[in-house]
Amino acid sequence: MSDLPPLQALRCFEAVARLGSVTRAAEALHVTHSAVSQQLRQLETLLGLALFERVGRGLRLSENGRLYALQVRAALGDIAQATRVLRVRPREGELVVSVIPSFGLHWLLPRLPRFSLRHPDERVRLQAGLDVQDLLRQGGADVAIRMGHGPWEGLSQQRLFDDQLLMVAAPHFRGGRLPATPAEVLACPPVRSAESWSPWCEAVGLPEPPPLAGLWINDSNLTIEAVRLGQGVALERLSIVHGLLQRGELVALTEVRVPYPYPYWLVWPTTGARRAPPAAFAAWLAEEVTAYQAELAERAGGGVIPPVRPR
Predict the structure, then answer these.
(1) Nearest Cα to 147, choosing from 249, 267, 290, 240?
(2) Which of 104, 206, 287, 289 has the most other CB atoms within 10 Å of its CB?
């Protein structure tokens, strides 16, 4: 390790090489201009060669500097990644659950206190994520909730439930003069996300709105917030608007619901120390899913959330 330069000197060198300026590097590192210059001089002295060429009042990487910068940047990236992995490694007595952000916010998080009451010694850490590969990386989550068809290589999976899509709006949308028919719904400003409107439009026997119409958002949470603010109507998953419907923050515009094509799954690695899902969490989650589905059935029967009945 005797050839290893000081880490601060390497960070300063990488920043100057990347940003092309001592001043910008100093601002990025929150240090002074003179501190960066001093670190560069020390590094060049230690290496015994020039890493930069002085051009007027500026700096330009020498050929040696260019090659060194590529290697230093990769090495610093490896150190940063190792640090991130160490930080996310589960601690003793900690359960790391990776969850789709929208599902975590609207479905899992409101129910999670019941798990903590039942298992007060089990510390849960939620990690927002979409990629199933998160579980396969060293130090990843213990278990994840994902959507899709599967199977996923290197992962075991347990089906949780299938979802539905329905049209929603804020109760104050258009001053409370809400659309009453599918045709009136499709005449409203749409707030569109990744969900295809084609199955819903086919169910009601009407053409889909033009692709360029309305507001497009690539995140369900932002879509729901836009609808909640009264900016339009949206086709969203029942699982993530259910609580908002019950609290009156959103309303279902028609009786028509269509199946969502991607089920929810509980997934976990099939290799390593844990070859089965954490038993306590898996059992609790299954109970919550059963209770949720029973609530949907009861409310549908009572008319609070109407059943599927295409017009």
Answers:
(1) 267
(2) 104
